[in-house]
Amino acid sequence: MPHELPKAYEPGAIEMRWADYWIKEKLFSVPTPPPGETRPVFTLLLPPPNVTGRLHMGHMLNQTQMDIIVRWHRMRGFITLWLPGTDHAGIATQMMVERDLAKEGKKRRDLGREKFIERVWEWKKLYGGAILDQMKRLGVSVDWDREYFTMDENLSRAVREVFVRLYEEGLIYRGNYIVNWCPWHETAISDLEVKHEDVAGKLWEIRYPVIGTSEFITVATTRPETMLGDTAIAVNAADERYTHLHGKYVLLPLMKREIPIITDELAQPEFGTGAVKVTPAHDPNDFQAGLRHNLLQINVMDEHAHMNQNAGPYAGLDRFEARKRVLHDLQEQGFLVGEKDYTLALGKCDRCGTAVEPRLSEQWFIKIKPLAERAKEAVESGEITIVPDNHRQVYLNWMNNIYDWCISRQLWWGHRIPAWTCGDDACKEIIVAREAPSKCTKCGGAKLEQVPDVLDTWFSSGLLPFTTLGWPEKTRDQAVFYPTTLLITAYEILFFWVARMIMFGCHFMQGHEQDAAIKKASGWGDKKNDSVPFRQVYIHALVRDAERQKMSKTKGNVVDPLEVIERFGTDATRFTLAAMAAPGTDIAFNESRTDGYRAFANKIWNAARFMFMNVDRIEPGLRPGGGQECPPHTRGVAGFRVATLEDRWILSRFNRVAADVNDALATYRFHEAANRIYDFFWGELCDWYLELIKPRLNHEEGADKSAARTACANLVNLFDASLRLLHPIMPFITEEIWQAMYEGKPPLKSIALAGFPQADEQQFDLAAETEMAILQDLIVAVRNLRAELKVEPKVKVPIEVFAHESEIRAMIEHNQGSVERLANVEKITFVESSLTNRAGARSTARFDVHVVFERKIDVAAECERLKKELEKIEKGTASGQKQLGNPQFMAKAPASVVENLRKQQQELAVLREKTLSKMKELGCS
Ligand SMILES: [Zn+2]
Ligand SMILES: [Zn+2]
């Protein structure tokens, strides 16, 4: 039966088919390993996309990198668990459904809480799977059997457990606090959810009359309407301008309220008048000052940012309308003394763009310092490493300056806070409990109402490393898979998510121990602490557009990964992101690169077809001779029988590339791994090796038949190993060809379960690499000369070769056929003296070659070429000399490096002589 591979490479058809196959066969599902397991374990948690999400380039990069690392571990024999799921995304999801309702002319309050939540669940059922379906198209090798949703019953139970425990430990408290309030969402949002934007505003100066004097104190503000809630004026104790006013009162204009003049560091003498108004209910700094001086907190706005009854005559007005009226009245009454243009950093809600209002409200908080201590230590001590290293300090700075975390949100969609208020007006007890209590623990009353707030979405996602493994029960899954091995994520959620996971993990998993045998096998034997949620964090770069601009909807430069996939295939898109992911730089995504990698896939496809054609002709039924089992048989290329120079060479090259790719992946140098494979597969295997073995494949008759068979078997084995090397980056095309190599009867269900090639040092062959390099130089030199002399492609030309050493001559003679064929040469004549001075000649340090062809060469062009050549030689000489003359370098460099450098210098000297003499001969200026 012939090997089946369609003529044209059509990624779309292949990719869908294999993505479905992997899921249907449950290839990436990981049952819990029983005690006694001694294989290493690799665990990775997928940063859960929002259930409202649509796949963007950031996901695509993130998931490509994760999938590469995951497949690589799996192929090296690790028990590899990649946990997928989605986040309920409180605000984002609620907004989606509210928008739908708005189309029907309804608000969520028209439905009521229960009906509204039902509606959200319906929405989730209909649309919540979209992002997961898109992930499937990427080929992500996650364990779909363990897919979770952050509001699943078991995860919700764990959330309640965590809340209650923290409350019982005194780490959760309720308090009046100034929070960032989004009037549109009607909820508190965290500092991290506020985006600051420079906008042109005004700075108004208002003067307050000091009671009992004829003086005024002038203050400046960008939000004059908040003055209605002022409860003090602050001056700095050291500011002598105001010493005589200490202890006096001012009369608050418009409200006619007497408020004290206090001394506080809030007032900085060098800013403006040195005096500031204090509005504890509407500014976070004033709030703190208010606590220091026991000031009244007067809230003048409601949750819609409308003025409330505390705003007197302005009650009921929207904040911006109130601002106009307040300014007008101040002006009229002679209190407004100045108006200046002013650029202010206006805080806006990250999701809806509404100007955030600092607002006093009752919220729930986590006392964060005790949790931050351990989280800081975990990174400082190296129990968790952060790559790249520069993010480590950013993390530590943040932990050092951390504020209590406001965890309550005034939303309906999310984990409702497990707290109930006693309805008895005299009691009002707050009861925090795992399950709904039936009566008040204090007064015994049965009128209990659950607190309406839900928890910040990051509260539940911060728990995922252990709650997805069965916590609060002690499970075998935790013993095996916790701590997870790695987290790959974006910088923008380092604090939102990564830091919170570390705090929660260190706290709730304190005392946890990973299964000792597994821990040892996985290489974590020396780590003291297993409470951390992951051993390592890799922060990936951003994907920008081709001009290095940040992608944004307003700029209209957002690249949709699904469109790119549609056009070039997932494999080519994955390869692009890997090849461009140099550490420390953002990726300037350029479709022309993706187009190039589609061509790469096509090249591999055609090479496979060429291979199958030969196998079917020479030895039908030939299968790869090894390399399937995982992890044995993964060193080098199994079943490869060295017969010729090109065999020795390609085998050596393969092993070097395998070594480099493994090194690169171990340190997240995705670009290096991708580029090494690309150069090997396209350049060395397809362009050179396939060409070099063609004569052997073509002489399948008589005595040469065994040579043809060997060449054929070598090719098959080499191809099998190369596909495995490429598989983590291009999973689809490698699966398709690999399955075809076994004609649908592979020894394993998928190449994804086969072994990842490791270097076999026995198969390194430096001599073969050196010899092959000389042959390649010779062939390329002749090709270039032919092009310069404009020799018709069909015409074979004779060449003359002068070899510097007899071994080189022997080697070239031995491979004469290859040179003749690949350089289109009629005949090689060896000469005994240098050919430098001949027109139509090229020189290297090891040989001179001359193409015998009757055509005048373009002297000017040749001189130009030689001049450039000379410059290159001199540059190389200078840099080598510099290194050899640098005592620091010489002290550190290994002997072999120095030896190579010296040899290179000698070669450059020879080449320089040759080039100069040729230039002289041609009369170049
Ligand atoms: Zn908002
Ligand atoms: Zn009560």
Secondary structure layout:
Blueprint (H helix, E strand, L loop, with lengths): L10 H14 L16 E5 L11 H19 L3 E5 L1 E2 L3 H14 L4 H4 L1 H15 L2 H9 L9 E2 L3 H16 L3 E11 L4 E3 L4 E16 L6 E6 L10 E4 L13 E4 L4 E7 L11 E4 L5 H10 L25 H14 L3 E14 L7 E10 L2 H12 L4 E3 L2 H11 L4 E2 L1 E2 L9 E4 L7 E3 L15 E3 L3 E2 L1 H5 L2 H4 L8 H6 L2 E7 L3 H15 L7 H6 L12 E7 L2 E2 L16 H8 L1 H10 L7 E2 L2 H28 L26 H22 L3 H29 L6 H22 L4 H11 L24 H23 L8 E7 L2 H9 L1 H7 L2 E6 L10 E3 L3 E5 L7 H26 L2 H6 L2 H28 L3
Parallel strand pairs: 1-2, 3-4, 9-11, 15-23, 22-23, 24-25, 26-27
Antiparallel strand pairs: 5-6, 5-14, 7-8, 7-13, 9-12, 10-11, 14-16, 17-21, 18-19, 18-20, 26-29, 28-29
Helix pairs in contact: 1-23, 10-11, 10-15, 17-18, 18-19, 18-21, 19-21, 19-22, 20-21, 20-22, 20-24, 21-22, 22-23, 27-29
The chain binds zinc ion (2 copies).
One zinc ion binds next to loops.
Report on the architecture of this protein.
This protein is an alpha/beta fold and 925 residues long. Helices cover 44% and strands 16% of the residues. Strands 6-5-14-16 form a 4-stranded antiparallel beta sheet. The model has no long low-confidence stretch (mean pLDDT 90). Residues 422, 424, 427, 429, 440, 442-443, 445 line the site of one zinc ion (ZN).
Record keyword descriptors for this entry.
925 residues, alpha/beta, four-stranded antiparallel sheet, four-stranded mixed sheet, 29 helices, 44% helix, binds zinc ion
